[in-house]
Design goal:
cysteine-type exopeptidase activity; 3-stranded antiparallel sheet; single chain; dipeptidase activity; Peptidase_C69; alpha+beta
């Protein structure tokens, strides 16, 4: 009866249950938790990782409103000579990863290469996540 956004984030990070996967060539692609207030005057708040492996990601809050402009850090790049749109198709490849994904991959490499600095980074990410959750509570 008292499931919170933090409860759901914890569930999505649970590797022992098999919900969060990062082995055998497969990794959880991304995760989302939504807070849907019963009062229709209040906005819904959605938390997205937008990066793989929620156990090492931060859930970031989003509130969708009219006229919203997507953050450039989470938009996949576009290419004037996109191999997907040329004939014959896919004769070359391009890096479609958005900036946030690339930085997340660099953070994962740090976590694996230097456990102590990686743990410090993860603690910083969790603190940012906590600030997002606190901001959501203030908003609602």
């Amino acid at each position: 009866g008292h499931i919170t956004a933090e409860t759901l984030m914890s569930i999505l990070r649970d590797k022992d249950s098999g919900i969060c996967v990062d082995s055998e060539g497969f990794r959880t692609a991304g995760s989302m938790v939504s807070v849907l207030p019963q009062d229709p005057a209040l906005p819904c708040v959605h938390f997205f990782t937008a990066t793989p492996d929620p156990s090492r990601s931060v859930f970031k809050p989003f509130v969708f409103v009219a006229g919203i402009k997507p953050a450039p850090q989470v938009r996949s790049p576009t290419f004037p000579q996109d191999p997907a749109k040329q004939i014959p198709r896919f004769q070359s490849s391009v890096d479609r990863r958005h900036e946030l994904y690339r930085r997340h991959q660099a953070a994962l490499e740090l976590m694996e290469r230097d456990r102590e600095r990686g743990q410090q980074l993860l603690e910083t990410l969790r603190e940012l996540e906590k600030q997002g959750l606190e901001g959501m509570r203030e908003l609602l």
